[in-house]
Amino acid sequence: MPNDIAVPEESSTEEAAPPDLARNGKALRWFELSLVLVVCFSSSLLASFRFLTNGADAAQPRQSADWGYLLFQEIIGLLLLGYVLWRRRMTFRDLGLSWSPGDPLAGILVAVAAYFSYVVGYTLIHLANQTFFHTAAQAGSVARQIFGHPTLLSIPLLFLNPLFEELIVRAYLMKEIRELTGSWLLAGAVSVAIQTAYHLYYGWVGALCLGFQFLVFSIYYANKRRATPIVVAHCIFDVWAMSRLW
């Protein structure tokens, strides 16, 4: 009866396997999250820190080729995210990207709340600077110094960029960190920190003010798990900002 004796050993091995698989799966998810973030935002982060270090002199208006490269980079980033989700049998819909008739109104309301938060942040930062340093807060590079005069290639970016940013640095990042750590607070903090960091070409003051706006986006996503209204809100800000450059 040797075969009967071997059975308990096999079942004990099977019972020990799931924790190992769970640990490996968790490590893979951290790796995939890091990979997506590096591919999508490392160049923006490096450029922002360069602008922050060197000031307005480092800001060179984008040429037509630059807009084309940015468009290409964001398409590649979304394709990479799509692959990572497909590998896990998920779609963008699982991140909260779906359409409903109320989304445009919800997006407008989110944009209004985000703008109000931006104004509050702007006021608090300038008051703090006056109180502790007795000087006016200095702005960094202005949008025209960085973006120059938009070309035709900037038009598709008005609609692609909100989708790119909010799906990756908001929905995907927050969902993954929440599921991996159990904390929406940590998920929101990391999302806001990364998004603020790659906007440092506006200087510390400008980026921190935008951080208040991104905070509203993160709070909304943590509560509603819906990405579409945030994409709409982000698109409103991008269209408004781009219209000032034409």
Fold topology:
Layout: H1 2-54, H2 64-87, H3 103-133, H4 143-147, H5 154-181, H6 184-197, H7 203-224, H8 228-243
Helix pairs in contact: 1-2, 1-5, 2-5, 3-7, 3-8, 5-6, 5-8, 6-7
Q: Which structural class fits the helix and strand makeup?
A: mainly alpha
Q: What is the number of strand segments?
A: 0
The major pleated sheet works out as: none
* pLDDT < 50 stretches: 1-17
Overall mean pLDDT score? 85
User: For this entry, what is the oligomeric state of its chains?
Assistant: single chain
Strand content: under 5%
Alpha-carbon Rg, integer: 22 Å
Descriptive terms for the model:
mainly alpha; single chain; 246 residues; 78% helix; 0% strand; 8 helices
Briefly summarize what is shown.
The chain is an all-alpha fold and 246 residues long. It has helices at 2-54, 64-87, 103-133, 143-147, 154-181, 184-197, 203-224, 228-243.
Give a description of the structure.
This protein is mainly α. Helices cover 78% and strands 0% of the residues. The protein has eight helices and no strands. It has one domain. Helix 1 packs antiparallel against helix 2, helix 1 packs across helix 5 (154-181) and helix 2 (64-87) packs parallel to helix 5.
